[in-house]
Amino acid sequence: MDAKEILKQYIAKTISLSDEQFDYFFSHFKPQVFKKGQTIIGAGDKLDSEYFVINGCLKTFYINDELKMYILQFAMPTWWASDYHALYTGNRSTVSVDCITDAEVLCLKTEDREKLCREIHAIEHFFRWRTNMGYVASQKRLLSLMNNDARHRYEELLKQYPQLYNLVPKNLIAAYLGVSRETLSRLYHSQK
User: Fold this and answer.
1) What is the DSSP letter of 83?
2) Among 83-92, 131-140, 163-172, the range of highest mean pLDDT
3) How far apart, in Å, do the first and last CA atoms of the chain sit?
4) Which of 91-100, 131-140, 149-158 has the highest mean pLDDT?
5) Does residue 35 surpass a pLDDT of 90?
6) How far apart are CA 49 and CA 112, in angstroms?
7) What distances in angstroms separate CA 92 from CA 41, 43, 47, 84, 87, one per listed residue?
């Protein structure tokens, strides 16, 4: 399936657009291809875009002053990635986005998203729904980090995204869960 069809099927789950409206919507996206390990957004960058994943896997992460990495998100096909705080406030990026695997994305500039939202009400509804679902997922993850032990968070992750364990290096899964690589190994082996 090509990028256009993937995006069309994805948004059709939320809104209905005529073929003409969808073609206009799609014309604002720029296809981009990145290699494994390539940085899409670096800390300190000025942002004007968000990325819809067609193929591959991205990670959104933060590195603190002690050089410890915290994974905020893994973005797989049909997921979106950016530093949304920087994107919506105009501040420089505090998080980075790079490629865990080779990746194909569709890039949408903020000015184009806003123009589309003004011109087509259904698209405004789509982006509002998507933003709300992103907030819900972030809140759910934060509550899990505050209330659940490492084992429960690990089991929750594997249940929700079973393909991650074979796709993402174990040190990155550990960083996402907030545990050491050794703890992750113990959790994995206790499941067998």
Assistant:
1) -
2) 83-92
3) 35
4) 91-100
5) yes
6) 9
7) 10, 7, 7, 11, 8
Structural domain boundaries in the chain: 3-122
* Residue 17 near residue 11, CB atoms below 8 Å: yes
65-73 long-range contacts, Cβ below 8 Å, gap at least 24? Answer: 69/175, 70/175, 70/178, 71/172, 71/175, 71/176
Superfamily of domain 3-122: Jelly Rolls (2.60.120.10)
Q: Rounded to whole angstroms, how far apart are CA atoms 116 and 121?
A: 8
Q: Please report, as a single letter, which amino acid is at residue 87.
A: L
Residue 45 burial class via C-beta count within 10 angstroms: exposed 0-12, middle 13-18, buried 19 and up: middle
List Cα–Cα distances, 89 to 7, 47, 85, in angstroms: 26, 10, 6
Task: Determine the length of the chain.
Answer: 192
| 170 token code pair | 């174990």
